[in-house]
């Protein structure tokens, strides 16, 4: 199998000891929902740093206690975060702690247990989303069905810059998303081995939504 990390520059797999540390805690079946939520929160902060590297900045005059200098700021009306319900909510606070000026849209997607097809059940976007860079967040990218449905929805709203942030991805899902949409970029904390018969990621971490909300 070709190495997706090398063949597609639209995929970024984070490479950091703290990411591996936190992800290993998340993968452990004995990790409690409270610990799991905390790790999702912390790892999302690290991931959004990577995914915002190329944001444009504007010069801003700053008066330090000693003198005036030209600093930089990121324009406040540039960004939006869209969690895919439910599990994406686990990443929202961490992402917003780094980019607090981002507007928030919410997309409800539920994967059918048998067909693995996503069903959209809720959508509420901020006005002007088409002019913002959108951070689409969901811990898991398995078949890619939910992410693709979300991307199709956002493209229909006119969004041009979509950045998909996931924590664990299967190669099947990454390939499906990159093949379907020529512009989207993906950040993931891990690229796992593949999917099992139920379309769960291996080794994965189980059902992220259940582990975040304690509904196992
Ligand atoms: C999970 C996960 C993704 C999706 C990934 O959500 O959070 O949204 O499955 O699978 P896919 O790539 O094959 O579409 P799920 O539908 O279980 O809903 P939940 O967040 O409410 O648990
Ligand atoms: N959704 C999850 O939460 N985990 C998987 O492994 C696949 C889909």
Automatic annotation (TrEMBL):
How the cofactor is bound: the record states: Binds 1 Mg(2+) ion per subunit. The magnesium is bound as Mg-PRPP.
In Gene Ontology terms, what is one molecular function of this protein? GTP binding
Cofactor(s) in the UniProt record: Mg(2+)
Q: Where does uracil bind?
A: 201, 206-208
Listed GO CC annotations: cytoplasm
Instruction: Recount the known activity regulation.
Output: Allosterically activated by GTP.
Write out the catalysed reaction: UMP + diphosphate = 5-phospho-alpha-D-ribose 1-diphosphate + uracil
Q: Which domain of life is it from?
A: Bacteria
GO biological process per UniProt: UMP salvage; uracil salvage
Q: Which UniProt keywords apply?
A: Allosteric enzyme, Glycosyltransferase, GTP-binding, Magnesium, Nucleotide-binding, Transferase
State the EC number(s): 2.4.2.9
Where on this chain does 5-phospho-alpha-D-ribose 1-diphosphate bind?
86, 111, 138-146, 207
Record's InterPro entries?
PRTase-like, PRTase_dom, Upp_B, UPRT, UPRTase/APRTase
Domain annotation Phosphoribosyltransferase: ranges: 13-215
Pathway where this protein functions:
Pyrimidine metabolism; UMP biosynthesis via salvage pathway; UMP from uracil: step 1/1
Write out the function statement from the record. Catalyzes the conversion of uracil and 5-phospho-alpha-D-ribose 1-diphosphate (PRPP) to UMP and diphosphate.
Name the family the entry cites: Belongs to the UPRTase family.
* NCBIfam families, A to Z: PRK00129.1, upp
Q: What is this protein called?
A: Uracil phosphoribosyltransferase
Organism of origin: Senegalimassilia faecalis
């Amino acid at each position: 199998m070709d190495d997706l990390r090398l063949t597609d520059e639209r995929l970024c797999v984070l490479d950091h000891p703290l990411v591996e540390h936190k992800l290993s805690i998340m993968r452990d079946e004995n990790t409690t929902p409270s610990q799991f939520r905390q790790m999702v929160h912390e790892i999302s902060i690290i991931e959004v740093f990577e995914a915002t590297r190329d944001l444009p900045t504007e010069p801003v005059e700053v008066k330090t206690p000693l003198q005036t200098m030209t600093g930089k700021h990121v324009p406040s009306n540039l960004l939006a975060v869209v969690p895919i319900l439910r599990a994406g909510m686990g990443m929202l606070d961490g992402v917003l702690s780094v980019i607090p000026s981002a507007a928030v849209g919410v997309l409800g997607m539920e994967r059918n247990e048998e067909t693995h097809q996503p069903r959209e059940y809720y959508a509420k976007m901020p006005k002007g989303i088409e002019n913002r860079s959108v951070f689409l967040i969901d811990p898991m990218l398995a078949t890619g069905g939910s992410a693709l449905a979300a991307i199709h929805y956002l493209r229909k709203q006119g969004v041009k810059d979509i950045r998909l942030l996931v924590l664990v991805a299967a190669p099947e899902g990454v390939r499906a998303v990159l093949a379907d949409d020529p512009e989207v970029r993906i950040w993931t904390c891990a690229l796992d081995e593949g999917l099992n018969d139920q379309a769960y990621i291996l080794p994965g971490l189980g059902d992220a939504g259940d582990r975040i909300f304690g509904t196992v």
